[in-house]
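Fold it.
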Amino acid sequence: MPNTTIKIDGVEVSPAQINCWPATLNLRLGGYSQLSCVRRRGTLPANDFDLINKDVQILIDDVLMFSGLFTARRTDYSTQGWVTTFQAFDLRYKADKIPFIDSNTQTDIALFNAPQDHQLYFASRSGMTVGEVVQACLEMSTIAGPIHEQGVGGYTVSGDTFTLPANTLSDLALLDLLPPQPLQVSGAKALTAIESFVNSVYADVFMFVDPNGVIRFIRKSNFVEETLTLNNCDDLVMPPNINVDIGECYGAVELLGQPRTESKWLSLSNGGLVENFTVGSWTPADWEAAKQSRASGSCTITDTLTVVIHHPGQSWGADELDQSHLKGTLAVSTTVVSGFDSVVTREIISNTASSGDYTTVTLDQALPATDFVMYKLYALNTADALVYRSYKITDSSIIEKLAREFNPPITYINSAGTYAQQISTPMGYVTTSSSEIGDSGISLDLDGTVIFNMPTYIKAGYQVPVDVGVWVPVNSGTLSVRKPAVGFEGTAYTLCGVENVLKLYQNDWKDPGQMASQGEYAQHVLDSVKDVVIDMDFNISKLWNPGLTLGKAIKLARSGFDEVPMPITNVNLTWNIQNAAMHTTSISCSNRTQAQPKLLPPERQSQGYTWGSSEVISPFTNDKQEGGL
């Protein structure tokens, strides 16, 4: 007969000492495991708090099966008196009381593999696999220290350094995928945040905490296999309930990244670009004037979106200052301290026609207050401001495919070959009789208008340029990879004809050089969704010790699934009081790639196999039930 030992706060006690007996032990992947213990009394208990907030351990035949903390109790009345049930959660629950805090940012967000231009880029946090990211998180002092105090982690501690045990490190070494995008770990609870990050990449990995505190990460394919047999008097397995599902299955996966571009060279000389201005009487002085404020003076705030400006000697027509014409910008200010101004800037979206040196303008965003008394107005100096600055692309097929940036970046080399630079955004250049001058100061509108920040006349040394040109990005398709390249794979396809394609958008995928790594990731995703999903529940009319260690998979012989190892996701051990079968082990197993939020134990079979008695005494109420748990 298996021997059950209870320890409270590390001290072995007998059930009679504490008047409390184990009732059920529920072990779960993807959640908290729980222990319930029952105390029976003839009168209503008033102060049954002696076990609350106590550490508890359960050993079966001297093997540690559960470690946790009593957190709750429930009192019910039965025909034999009052029954109090104490509930304990496992070590993972204790660790999740610790918040996830990044040791660097001191926030609940940790970023790895960030691009070099990101403010959180660190070389030591770059090029890391999923397993290396998890190790870095679990060994941060802000996480390792607190969860170590809860008895979780199994660390080797040296000063402020926490080193994970060999079993955890071996698990993490197998999570060697290097995703081609930045990796973020975040969340309120330490272990749940880390598990969520892992499952965002590896849907077939399960995290759990052993009763000894060691944190494990086991892939579905690495579960230890156990075999049970139906119609076997030693195994005592009841007939299973089996569910087959293809609802979330796909036969192929396609990853889609950012648009891919080609570079186009357009210039006045090759006809790809034309001037979009008339020189007339323009002089460089007009450009210099256009850089200055067009008006300044006092203003009155009608409301936070409307301002009346006073501008003696100037006038504008209705909506002449809006963003389709002179692109007016209004800076309003008020003196807070002598010599200092508080300034707020807004774009003008409409204006009334000037009347008596006053114009009312409407702003694009509300002002934070209405006590501004001064203004400065900035606007284009009519068409003269765009002379030698505005050019137009001539090819409509290029205009409709214009992009904002090159993907991948291109290398610009001047005509003389004297310098080169890599560019990601449109690039202009001005050619004189003696040289070519690159100009990154251009803006590109999707209607094909190119605006140079500085007149090309001035850029060319105050002379008409020999040529003006631009390098612009043109969309030529989308970065994509499909697995398999053609057709479909997986048992959902071969057995059920599933031909669904799972499309995933990778917003950070901009580099065609990542095609191989994206293909590897696509295959990884496909492997997690391509097979028919099978869920199976069954009872064993005895204590089945192998099931009390998470990370196991079952082959159920004579069930039709002899060759299919099914990962165990939920084990429920019941101590059957006054029953011929002292224990019942309920097993839930599934080949799903992520643990379900709740898998209920199967109903007890009332017909068919009859190991022991079909009349069961509930450990919670001591009431008789027919065929129920």
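Confidence is low (pLDDT under 50) at residues 595-629.
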